[in-house]
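Query structure, 304 tokens:
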């Protein structure tokens, strides 16, 4: 009975506790409100978290972009600095090269000036040497017209005496004939005097330094004149030398614009070589050898 009594009291206490627990518990509506509020707070926290992550991501993107820009600017500045240094080195190298070129140009100009001076001196020496070779020929060529001038002068002097005698005797016809002879002699004196003057003029032109000016030149006359001048010069060197000179000049050859002094030196060199070859063959006393030199000019396709 006692146990039943205690069991009954225990059940009453448990029932009272249960009723008390039920009275303290929230209702379903309240629970659902709490859950919904909790979900809203959670969603708000998630949104706030996403916003902060987006802000952080945006900040990271701007930081990366700024870093990229700064890197690009740094690379650009590095490239510009490198180009500037290369340009400086290139300018320095160009300046040195320009100085070297200017120095070399000055050296070349000085060398060219010295070469031109030496060349002019050599040409002048060559002219003087060729004049030395022509000395005998010049003397011979000048002596011939001078002999004619002297002879005709002497004859003219005698004719003048005869002219006076015939005039005093009144022989008019004889006076006229003697006067004609005198006129002819004076003409020949003038001709041979002009020939001597022409030879001297040519020699003076040959001996001058000259400026290389081209002049209208009769190549036939020049070729023939220096052939006649060169022959006696070779004859004076060797008594064994004897040669026939044969010329065949083109009559249709007009004057040609050349530097006469240069053509004269070429002709003298050619004639000297030919005279030497003829002399050497004469020394060998080749049978049936008739020494002769043929000189000709010819106009072919407007070229001499």
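Result returned for the query:
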């Amino acid at each position: 009975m006692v146990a039943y009594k205690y069991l009954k009291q225990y059940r009453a206490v448990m029932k009272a506790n249960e009723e008390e627990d039920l009275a303290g518990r929230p209702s379903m509506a309240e629970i659902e409100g709490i859950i919904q509020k909790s979900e809203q707070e959670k969603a708000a926290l998630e949104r706030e978290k996403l916003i902060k992550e987006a802000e952080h991501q945006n900040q990271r993107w701007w930081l990366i972009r700024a870093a990229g820009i700064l890197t690009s600017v740094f690379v650009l500045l590095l490239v510009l600095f490198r180009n500037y240094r290369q340009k400086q080195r290139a300018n320095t190298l160009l300046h040195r090269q320009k100085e070297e070129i200017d120095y070399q140009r000055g050296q070349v100009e000085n060398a060219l000036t010295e070469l031109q001076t030496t060349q002019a001196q050599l040409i002048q020496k060559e002219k003087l040497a060729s004049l030395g070779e022509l000395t005998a020929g010049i003397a011979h060529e000048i002596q011939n017209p001078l002999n004619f001038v002297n002879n005709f002068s002497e004859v003219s002097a005698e004719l003048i005496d005869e002219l006076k005698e015939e005039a005093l005797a009144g022989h008019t016809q004889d006076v006229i004939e003697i006067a004609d002879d005198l006129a002819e002699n004076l003409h020949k004196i003038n001709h041979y005097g002009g020939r001597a003057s022409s030879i001297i003029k040519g020699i003076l032109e040959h001996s001058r330094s000259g400026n290389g000016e081209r002049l209208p030149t009769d190549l036939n006359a020049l070729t023939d004149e220096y052939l006649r001048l060169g022959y006696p010069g070779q004859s004076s060197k060797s008594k064994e030398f004897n040669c026939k000179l044969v010329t065949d000049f083109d009559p249709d050859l007009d004057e040609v614009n050349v530097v006469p002094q240069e053509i004269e030196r070429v002709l003298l060199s050619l004639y000297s070589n030919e005279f030497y070859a003829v002399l050497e063959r004469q020394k060998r006393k080749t049978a049936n050898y008739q020494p002769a030199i043929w000189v000709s000019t010819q106009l072919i396709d407007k070229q001499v």
